[in-house]
Write a structure and sequence with these properties.
Blueprint: H1 11-27, H2 32-37, H3 52-58, H4 63-73, E1 76-79, E2 83-86, H5 88-92
Antiparallel strand pairs: 1-2
Helix pairs in contact: 3-4
Length: about 100
């Protein structure tokens, strides 16, 4: 069963339902399937670092298009005559600038 509640049309009902869902999730026991999918905090997950060019290639687009998408999403900004820099939003994704890359 499902129901659709639009925040724009009934803000108070939306807030009440959202609060109740949060409460139920907090008090509920994880199921067996949930336990299998848990990642323990002590486990460290290593990710491969990608340049914008490599990310673009993996997504099947050219570097300029990828840079424009990252600019549109607010992860990059242009400064100093057109050089791209990470924004706070970009850093929140755990991205690093070329200056911060290990050598």
């Amino acid at each position: 069963m499902g129901m659709m509640i639009k925040r724009a049309t009934d803000h108070q009902l939306y807030a009440d339902v959202s609060a109740e869902v949060d409460r139920l999730l907090q008090i509920s026991e994880p199921t067996h399937a949930d336990r299998e999918n848990l990642v323990l905090e002590s486990e460290s997950v290593e990710y491969e670092k990608l340049t914008t060019a490599k990310l673009a290639k993996r997504r099947g687009m050219d570097s300029r298009t990828m840079q424009n998408k990252l600019l549109a999403l607010g992860y990059l900004e242009l400064r100093d005559g057109g050089k791209s820099y990470l924004t706070a939003a970009g850093k929140a994704t755990r991205a690093i600038s070329p200056a911060e890359r290990p050598k």
